């Protein structure tokens, strides 16, 4: 398997694919996302096989799968419905897609769905505006403008650790002060 080349990929996928899918699905709870991430994990592991030690192999592949799933989940959480500005399509901003056309669900959105989505974005913006001033800037930059800690630190003059701390405290503040009903 380690030196089998492309012809050994199919047996590798048949042997480890179902296990890795279950592992990724346990983290993501989405069949579609789990399939995509599992494919990436299988390729990553297969490409790394020549360099790996086979002791603790199952632990190694499980760790790769879990880490990749967590990374995917974090990335997706930072882009909840992309919190787009008016007029943006939102389906491809910052996200690499294989096909050149938007997914069918985007094309089939009704005017009512778009109005509701616009209202939800406006509601979220209004809630963010009511955050304490020291949290508002970093929350807006991180979640709505999708900026990294480093970018926020450079723009605000804060240290990276300060940006992390403010985001952490802002999340705790939101958990204490916002209700789930505010978003429904």
TrEMBL record:
Keywords for this protein: DNA-binding, Sigma factor, Transcription, Transcription regulation
Q: Which CDD domains match?
A: Sigma70_r4
Q: Indicate the segments forming the RNA polymerase sigma factor 70 region 4 type domain, all copies.
A: 123-173
Give the matching SUPFAM superfamilies: Sigma2 domain of RNA polymerase sigma factors, Sigma3 and sigma4 domains of RNA polymerase sigma factors
Name the residues that span the membrane.
none
**PROSITE patterns with a match to the protein in the record:** SIGMA70_ECF
Q: Which domain of life is it from?
A: Bacteria
The parts of the chain that form a coiled coil are: none
Q: Supply the name of the protein.
A: RNA polymerase sigma factor
- Family to which this protein belongs: Belongs to the sigma-70 factor family. ECF subfamily.
- Flavoprotein as a keyword of this entry, yes or no, is no
Residue span(s) of domain RNA polymerase sigma-70 region? 12-79
């Amino acid at each position: 398997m380690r030196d089998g080349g492309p012809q050994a990929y199919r047996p590798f996928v048949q042997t480890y694919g179902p296990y890795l899918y279950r592992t990724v699905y346990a983290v993501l709870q989405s069949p579609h996302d789990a399939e995509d991430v599992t494919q990436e994990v299988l390729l990553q592991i297969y490409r790394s096989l020549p360099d790996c030690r086979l002791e603790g192999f199952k632990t190694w592949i499980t760790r790769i799968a879990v880490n990749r799933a967590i990374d995917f989940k974090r990335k997706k959480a930072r882009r909840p419905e992309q919190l787009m500005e008016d007029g943006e399509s939102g389906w491809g901003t910052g996200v690499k897609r294989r096909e050149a056309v938007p997914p069918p669900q985007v094309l089939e959105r009704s005017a009512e769905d778009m109005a509701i989505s616009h209202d939800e974005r406006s509601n979220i913006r209004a809630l963010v505006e009511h955050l304490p001033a020291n949290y508002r800037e970093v929350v807006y930059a991180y979640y709505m403008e999708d900026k990294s800690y480093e970018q926020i630190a450079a723009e605000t003059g804060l240290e990276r650790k300060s940006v992390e701390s403010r985001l952490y405290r802002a999340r705790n503040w939101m958990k204490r002060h916002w209700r789930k009903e505010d978003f429904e």
